[in-house]
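Progress against Task 2.4 (sequence-to-structure conversion) is shown through the following example record, which the project officer requested during the mid-term review.
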Amino acid sequence: MRTEPFAATEVIAAKRDKRELSDQQIDWFVDAYVRNVIAEEQMSAMAMAILLNGMNRREIVRWTKAYIDSGETMNWSDLGRPTADKHSTGGVGDKITLPLAPLVAACGVSVPQLSGRGLGHTGGTLDKLESIPGWRASLTNTEMFEVLKETGAVICAASQTLAPADRRIYGLRDVTGTVESIPLISASIMSKKIAEGTGALVLDIKVGSGAFMKTVEQARELATTMVEIGNDAGVTTRALLTAMDVPLGRTAGNALEVKESLEVLAGGGPADVIELTITLAREMLEASGAQGTKDPAVALRDGSAMDVWRAMISAQGGDVDAALPTAKETHDVVAQSDGYLIKLDALAVGMSSWRLGAGRARKEDDVQAGAGIQWHVGHGEAVAKGMKLFTLHTDEPARFEPALEVLTTGYEVGGREEISARLPLIIDRLV
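Structure tokens generated for the chain above:
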């Protein structure tokens, strides 16, 4: 019988009493949990102690390393090209990964993009891509390497063997009110990205009503912590704080956002999506050390980013020429007066899209590929009476009423002088 070096209760009590945990305590606690020596309620108690009392930089780095050490790591050195990845903390209409990955690849840097699914009002990249007929999210490590080698970019689900400790602990955090802990958020995100083996990482930390971080101060604290963890682990890491008080682009949903992403790859699309995509692409290229590569703005215009997209989607089984799914039912919301769209709240739009069937309440729930919302007028733009403001999409008409109930709280038409202030798209940059 194995003799354990610590008792779970003594390590929990140390953090409960605001003491620092040693490297040995952290390594053992995470490993013992994976081995089922530590019970679910004990890890839940530790998560709450960390939420309430925090961790210093050394503790967070070590906790992250313990997550990484619980599974396998990946290495892309055989590709012969620099690698870069992007992680967004999530928002409404945030389809940036879709055009960004092929765009960066078209500029000479490989993109191994491990992505997730939506839960609640924020969308998930994998859900969006699964609206493309035939596309596969789950790839073996060998398949991932082959797609990356062939096309320059891959977007897929993380392997079950990548930071498995985090996967289990995240499930506990979700049901114990400990999701908001910055040390645990940081370790969760960064363990997977470091284990993924990317050479450079750019973080897109969303700020505002539709984001997890509601204030710039919260977002900056999270960004600083994650940049420090990445750089300490030898991954060149930088972060942008970007706005999520207003939803991105003109759509929220799954197939709807794929369609909008294709518009961007074709050289069009909403100005804010174009700007953020190009800005993040330039950050990824610079962080990777790529020199003399094509500028992302050029790669959008000349079709090379679209070429990579088509190759990447096809390599993962997707039919790039197939029609995207559409919802069975639509409902238009029209303006009742002339004026300006003085308010457009990201959280309300996201919740409305979720109620239409674009998101899930539980991880095991299905999503509707065609569900979601289009907004035809942007924040601060002029409105004429009778003009379409929104189009709601769903397969189930009964969903319109609850979706409209929350959407009506999130927009307002009024005078020019009443247009609400909004955050700049790019708020800050941390390196």
